[in-house]
Amino acid sequence: MRRLKSLLIPGVDKTLLVRDAAKLLPEPSRRRFIAGGASLGALTLLTGCDVSDSFSAESMLTQISKFNDAVQAKIFNPNVLAPTYTERDIKRPFPFNAFYSEDEAPDIDGEAWKLEVSGLVDNKKSWTLAELHQLPEVKQITRHICVEGWSAIGSWSGTPLRDFLKLIGADTSAKWVHFRCAEDYASSLDMPTALHPQTQMTFKFDDKILPRAYGYPMKIRVPTKLGFKNPKYVVAMDVTNDYKGGYWEDQGYNDFSGS
Amino acid sequence: MSSITVSDDKAITGKAIQPAWVRLLHWINAAAVIMMILSGWQIYNASPLFGFTFSRSITLGGWLGGALQWHFAAMWLLMVNGAIYLALGLATGRFRNKLLPITPSGVLADTRAALTGRLSHADLTTYNYVQRLLYAGIIAVGIVIVLSGLSIWKPVQLQYLTALFGGYDVARYVHFAAMAAICGFLVIHVALSLLVPKALRAMIIGR
Lengths: 259, 207
Fold this sequence. Notes:
Chain A: It comes from Rhodopseudomonas rhenobacensis. Chain A is an alpha+beta fold. Chain A is about 30% helix and about 20% strand.
């Protein structure tokens, strides 16, 4: 009870406070916030009317999923490392998984490929694969956990994303790093996860240049997230404060999906 | 007049077989458990552990994404409600008074009596030994299913908990086995409550 009282600031108009807070929200989430409030309000006011018009289980579940994003962001400890394993734990062949079959996977010409960099960064130059291969390489053997439930241990090598973000002068106080991929896949990482020491721009699987199936020429390996938050065939990186969603996130998979 | 009402209320609450908090938490738990099981079956179907899947007609969520939303919404209801139940069960002495002691000889005698139709249900305020064992057991299974679920949800942040279950992959089997145990309990629990309707009535209106 004392805790509840301390949340109320004496002398502050609650209506104005909410209006100010709403202004701080980006436009789409502000609309969602207001829409959510309106439908819940409508439920209490319109008793006797068709409730399903103003209130649906789906919108409630979406709201709870957003709440779960916030809870997971709080649980996320940037100093906790994903467990690492040994060479003999590696799953060979490592499973291929995507929303398309393996022979439909993008077949990218590494010579012509470039990584586009945009958004809140000092240096927006595009990077060739040869340039990226010269960055310091770190290898880690971690467990990939799919949203479907299965898991497999793999070995990924590349450069820590946080070092690259430093190199390009990214504004690390921004909220998101959004990735766009060759096959119109996309996913966004919250900045604390992007800065996690194990989050990696990956160029090799099992000590060999990434094969086509595992995301040639570049994948983002995030051992603190479910597999669908590990985009393959990445072509563009955008540091941004605007939430741009992703292929699965837009269809209802929980956005944070942290392990 | 008002004093009579008050004493009547007192008499009613004094006689209640199941106190109001038990009834409230029981039915919230029932709803949460059903949502968790039905959405869990749909999640299981995305990557089955055994050679079968659950018919989509009896699952909740429609597809993996929808089922995950149900599962991760109902988990709050299950966990918060369950935590209140455990706290009140310990604080009020209900667990100690109703579920203890559980003796092997008592369980054997009451099982034999139940199977031969000689188990008395005259006094609903006291649980027989079979009930005590099943109710204490299902509370333990409830704790295991929540902890194994957390270790599947957060195998990095809660990696020591996940390790306690033998790692991520084993925790999935533990989570499934606990679900199967709850389903088995539900079959017996629902069947017996229908056989002894006054026990069901006590869980609804208290008497």
